[in-house]
Design goal:
Layout lengths: L1 H16 L3 H7 L22 E2 L8 E5 L1 H12 L8 E5 L2 E5 L2 E2 L4 E5 L5 E5 L8 E3 L6 E9 L11 E3 L22 E12 L6 E3 L4 E11 L4 E5 L5 E8 L4 E5 L5 E8 L9 E5 L5 E8 L4 E5 L5 E3 L2 E3 L3 E2 L2 E5 L4 E5 L5 E8 L14 E5 L7 E5 L7 E2 L1
Parallel strand pairs: 1-3, 2-4, 3-6, 4-7, 5-8, 6-9, 7-9, 8-10, 9-11, 10-12, 11-13, 12-14, 13-15, 14-16, 15-17, 16-18, 17-19, 18-20, 19-21, 19-22, 20-25, 21-26, 22-26, 25-27, 26-28, 27-29
Antiparallel strand pairs: 23-24
C-alpha cells in the first residue's frame, strides 16, 4: 500500500508541476513514421510545438507549402496557452512559399540555417517573410530565408512593414489587439537572409525593439540590412556580397556590435560597406573588409564609431586587383559624431596595380564634427579635407 500510495503521490505532483504536457501530447500529432512499435521523434523544442509537416507541408523543395504553413500558424495562434502562441517548428527541409506573414506570439524555429529553408517560389514577387504592423512578441531562429533571385524571385527576405504613426502603442500584456505595434519585441537568432533581389533585412520606420544575433545576410541585390527603425540591436553578424552596401542605417538609437561587412558594393559603388545617415547610433567593433566602395560613410549626426576597422576597401568594381582610387576608410560628412580607436589599414599591401586599396584614410566633408581618433597606414594619400 505504501508503494502504491507513493506512486499516486508522484503522479499528482507531476501533474501539478507540468500541467500542460499531457494537453500538448493530446493536441499535436506525433512526428515521424509513428507506426506500431516505432517511437515518434521529439523535436528539440518541447512538446507544445506545432510542426508544419503535420499540417501538410512537405519541405521537399518542389511543393508549394504556403497554405500548409499558414494552417500551422493559425493553429499556433489559436493555442489558449501560452498566451495565444507557440513554437512553429520546421524540420530540416526546403519549404517553397509564395510569401508568409508572421503573427504575434509565433516563435518560428528550424534545425539551423541551410538546414531548414524557406525558399521563395520561382518567378514570384513577394517578400519571403513579412512582419505586419499589428505583430509583436515573436522570434525566429535556425532558418534560412531565401529569395530565389536566380530563378525570378523578387522582393526582400525579411520585411517589417511601416507603421502609419510613431510609437503610439506600447506592447504590454493587454495590447494584444492594438492596430499599431511599433514596439515589436522581436528576436531573430541564427538566421540567414540570402539571394533576395532587394534587401536581406528591410525594417521600415517607427519599428522599435528588434534584436538580431548571430545572423548572416548574403548575396542580396541592394542591401544586406536596411533599417529606418529605432532602439534595436544587431550583434555577431556577417554581411557579405550585397549589391550596394552591407548596412544602410537610416534609423536612430540603434546599436551594431561585433560584425564583419565584406565584399559588398559590387553593383553600386557610391555608398559604403556601412552607410549611416541616422542619428545617435552606436557602431562598435565592426570591421569592413574587401568592399568595392568606402569602408564607412557617415552623413547623420551624433553617432559613435568605436573600435571599428576599415581594411582593404576601395577596389575597382569586380576587380579586386586594382584600386578605384576614390575610396576612403571613413567618409565623415556628419555633425557632432565621435570616432574613437578606429583603424584604417590594408592586409593586402599594394595591389598588382601598384596602389593600396584605400585612397584616403578618411575624408572630412564637414567641419561640424566631434572627436576624430582614427589610426591609419597603407593608404595612397593622407586624410582629405574638402
Amino acid at each position: 500500500m505504501k508503494h502504491t500510495s507513493s506512486c499516486f503521490s508522484i503522479l499528482v505532483l507531476s501533474t501539478m508541476l507540468y500541467p500542460f504536457s499531457i494537453h500538448a501530447q493530446a493536441t499535436e500529432p506525433p512526428i515521424g513514421n509513428g507506426g506500431p512499435g516505432v517511437s515518434a521523434a521529439i523535436p528539440p523544442v518541447g512538446l507544445s510545438a506545432i510542426i508544419v509537416t503535420n499540417y501538410g507541408a512537405r519541405g521537399d523543395g518542389r511543393t508549394d507549402d504556403t497554405a500548409a504553413i499558414n494552417s500551422a500558424m493559425s493553429a499556433c495562434v489559436a493555442h489558449d496557452r501560452p498566451n495565444n502562441g507557440c513554437v512553429l517548428y520546421f524540420p530540416a527541409g526546403v519549404y517553397i512559399t509564395t510569401g508568409l506573414t508572421l503573427r504575434s506570439y509565433v516563435n518560428m524555429k528550424g534545425d539551423g540555417w541551410g538546414t531548414s529553408v524557406l525558399l521563395l517560389k520561382p518567378n514570384t514577387a513577394s517578400n519571403v517573410l513579412t512582419v505586419p504592423v499589428d505583430a509583436f512578441n515573436f522570434s525566429i531562429s535556425g532558418l534560412t530565408l531565401d529569395g530565389n533571385s536566380g530563378r525570378g524571385g523578387t522582393g526582400n527576405c525579411f520585411f517589417v512593414a511601416p507603421t502609419s504613426t510613431g510609437p503610439a502603442e506600447w506592447n504590454t500584456a493587454n495590447k494584444k489587439t492594438a492596430p499599431v505595434n511599433a514596439q515589436k519585441w522581436g528576436h531573430v537568432e541564427e538566421v540567414m537572409f540570402s539571394h533576395c533581389s532587394v534587401d536581406g533585412v528591410h525594417i521600415n520606420a517607427f519599428n522599435y525593439m528588434l534584436f538580431f544575433d548571430n545572423f548572416y545576410a548574403f548575396d542580396n541585390g541592394v542591401y544586406g540590412l536596411y533599417t529606418e527603425g529605432t532602439n534595436s540591436g544587431f550583434t555577431n553578424f556577417q554581411i557579405e556580397r550585397n549589391g550596394t552596401a552591407g548596412i544602410h542605417l537610416k534609423g536612430s538609437n540603434d546599436r551594431f556590435t561585433s560584425g564583419e561587412v565584406i565584399w559588398n558594393g559590387g553593383t553600386v559603388g557610391t555608398e559604403a560597406a556601412v552607410y549611416v545617415e541616422g542619428a545617435r547610433n552606436i557602431i562598435t567593433a565592426v570591421e569592413t573588409e574587401d568592399n568595392y566602395t568606402n569602408g564607412f560613410f557617415e552623413k547623420g549626426s551624433d553617432n559613435v564609431f568605436m573600435g571599428c576597422v576599415s581594411d582593404s576597401n576601395g577596389y575597382v568594381q569586380k576587380n579586386p586587383n586594382a584600386s578605384s582610387r576614390v575610396a576612403s576608410g571613413f567618409v565623415i560628412a556628419s555633425s557632432g559624431s565621435v570616432y574613437l580607436g578606429d583603424i584604417v589599414t590594408s592586409y593586402r599591401g599594394r595591389l598588382p596595380d601598384g596602389n593600396f586599396t584605400t585612397e584616403w584614410p578618411y575624408s572630412l566633408e564637414s567641419r561640424d564634427h566631434g572627436k576624430i581618433d582614427i589610426t591609419y597606414d597603407n593608404t595612397n594619400k593622407p586624410p582629405h579635407t574638402h
